[in-house]
Amino acid sequence: MSRTVRAARGTALTAKNWQSEAALRMFHNNLDPEVAERPQDLVVYGGTGKAARDWASFDGITRGLTTLDEDETLLVQSGKPVGVFRTHEWAPRVLIANSNLVGDWATWPEFRRLEQLGLTMYGQMTAGSWIYIGTQGILQGTYETFAAVAKKKFGGSLKGTLTVTAGLGGMGGAQPLAVTMNDGVALVIECDPERARRRVETRYLDEVADDLDDAIRRVTTAKKDKRALSVGVIGNAAEVLPELLRRGVEVDIVTDQTSAHDPLAYLPKGVAVDDWADYAAKKPDEFTDRSRESMADHVDAMLGFLDAGAEVFDYGNSLRGEAKLGGCDRAFDFPGFVPAYIRPLFCEGQGPFRWAALSGDPADIAATDRAMLELFPENESLARWIRLAGERVAFQGLPARICWLGYGERHLAGVRFNEMVASGELTAPVVIGRDHLDSGSVASPYRETEGMADGSDAIADWPLLNAMVNTASGASWVSIHHGGGVGMGRSIHAGQVCVADGTELAGRKIERVLTNDPGMGVIRHVDAGYERAAEVAGERGVRVPMKET
Ligand code: NAD
User: What's the CA gap between 304 and 244, in Å, rounded?
Assistant: First the structure.
């Protein structure tokens, strides 16, 4: 059965109040064909990250949200609605737990066994917590990462440099635009022509080459002319990257965003895209061995570029871990992107703050863009981002915006948006959320918490405390997931979303949540011994009992 889902727009309510209407619209928005990678399978992004377990659960969640009162809470267990309880109006309207497994059982084969029994679902990060906003959601983080690479190694700009990467999926599709926004040239290897076409359509990718020779010609010319350009090439990264190395193409930066976190979502060499799903379903063990071997070849080529002097990093998809299992002993010779570029931002509670206009009207996002520029006039990189995003980002589904804000900033934006709803400057409420990839909401030793100063990489108390403090502070929905980004057994993370419905109560909740949530990032990094985090806590008044005398 094929079903098309799209969020309602405008000011008429389907649910009983805006708090649950917002959850309903964002849940449906995650499955909008403009937003989701495979909506017919309820898959939103990131390999198999889903919004609901199955279509019966989809209908159950829709029913639950539509009938929910202002003092009730819907419980969702791995994409299935399992209960409604009377709580109170400060409590979240929805509590979500996705893909969580007890430690010793937290492996892909066991997860798949349970999934096949219909008992669980992979929620990725924002798929199962209903705050995915399309590729823009990762764009600014990707843009900031490449800006940090430029600053570290290329004098502040990627002009005249060539970045080679792979994966043009929901997240990976942001890479080409992030590189060209930094004035560089990007060559992106993608095995599925349909994915590449989609990125051209949404203006994330400039063009697709006819073949590898053509791709090399286009990118080397653009690099020589110091002209920003992104080119997609259809092929398998485990074959194309070694070939680029063999041909001696001068590459400055190498990374990857294929879905390497799930060996069944990485295409092994010698397998056709059309045979992928069937082969992976029928022979998962054999497929896993082959994809790990291919990942080892892929990483070997990355190491070749590293040895030749290129800037090489893992872009948060577990490629190094899987390649190591495939026999590549040097896989961890290059770093993950968080320790390499992002951790100083995390020390300030910075992370991917995002919001979506429930009206469906792009003018509402334009109004919030103006409000952000007025709120933070001294922040030049924010101003540059908001201007570029306004010009270059095509909305997918409900209009939305993302930008990185830190402790002491996010609540100002949230409270202002709520006032704009109240005054009628915005035509309908907005939701304000974030990725789980944030400063204090995730334990992920191959990504966000790789190489922590005190060795606390695998300590997962922090995301649990994060979910609890957001629940206690008045978030509209809160989630705890396992395995997002890097796969089963490798991460635990939490999310929160607030609804700015223009009421005084919403204003008070938003003020607390958007203070305490990034505050978790500051205290997590203070605790790990980061000096910058201690400074931020001192300057901005974050209380840390162990630092008080
Ligand atoms: P996706 O599943 O939507 O896309 C993955 C793409 O890789 C697909 O288009 C697929 O065809 C392609 N691919 C798979 N194997 C390939 C191969 N051998 N050669 C060439 N192309 C191949 O996933 P996504 O949402 O784009 O996420 C990509 C990865 O990045 C995931 O592992 C995800 O967990 C991770 N991720 C990273 C961040 C970050 O901040 N760095 C954030 C979210 C997700």
Answer: 10
Given the structure tokens 């005249």, which residue do they identify? 160
Q: Do residues 460 and 489 make contact, with C-beta atoms less than 8 angstroms apart?
A: no
Give me the active site residues, please.
403
Nearest to 502 by CA among 17, 77, 104: 17
* Ligand 1 atom nearest to CA at 268: 18
Q: Which residue has the tokens 């924010």?
A: 382
Q: How far apart are CA 387 and CA 216, in angstroms?
A: 31
Q: Does ligand 1 come within 6 angstroms of the Cβ of 349? A: no
Cα angle 514-483-50, degrees, rounded to a multiple of 5: 80
Query: 504 burial class (0-12, 13-18, 19+ CB within 10 angstroms)?
Result: exposed
Q: What is the pLDDT of residue 533?
A: 98
SS3 (DSSP) at 324: helix
- Asked whether 146 and 108 are in contact (CB, 8 A), the reply is no
Token readout for 247 is 């041909």
pLDDT in the model for residue 456: 98
Per-residue 3-state assignment (H helix, E strand, C coil) for 482-513: ECCCCCCCCCEEEEEEEEECCCHHHHHHHHHH
Residue 520 backbone phi and psi in degrees, to 5: -60, -35
pLDDT at 543: 97
**245-283 b/e with 16+ CB inside 10 Å = b?**
beeebebbbbbbbbbbbbbbbbbbeebeeeebeebbeee
Length of the chain, in residues: 549
Residues in Cβ contact with 70 at an 8 Å cutoff, skipping those fewer than 6 apart:
16, 17, 19, 89
For 371-394, b/e burial (b = at least 16 CB within 10 A) is bbeebbeebeebeebbeebeeebe
Ligand 1 pocket test target in 132, 136, 258 with most atoms within 8 Å of CB: 258
pLDDT in the model for residue 1: 61
Residue spans of the chain under pLDDT 50: none
CA atoms within 13 A on the CB side of 477: 29
Per the DSSP assignment, residues forming a β-bridge with 499 are: 431
| Cα–Cα separations (whole angstroms), residue 381 to 143, 144, 149, 253, 366 | 11, 9, 15, 22, 18
Q: Assess whether the C-beta atom of 166 lies below 6 angstroms from ligand 1.
A: yes
Q: pLDDT tens-digit profile of 174-186?
A: 999 999 999 999 9
* DSSP structure class, residue 528: T
pTM of the model: 0.89
Decide if 184 contacts 159 (C-beta within 8 A). Answer: yes
Residue 177's closest CA among 189, 186, 165? Answer: 186
Residue whose tokens read 């084969």 = 109
Predicted local distance difference test score (pLDDT) of residue 144: 85
Look at residue 225 in the predicted model and tell me its pLDDT: 98
> Of all protein residues, whose CA lies closest to atom 44 belonging to ligand 1?
485
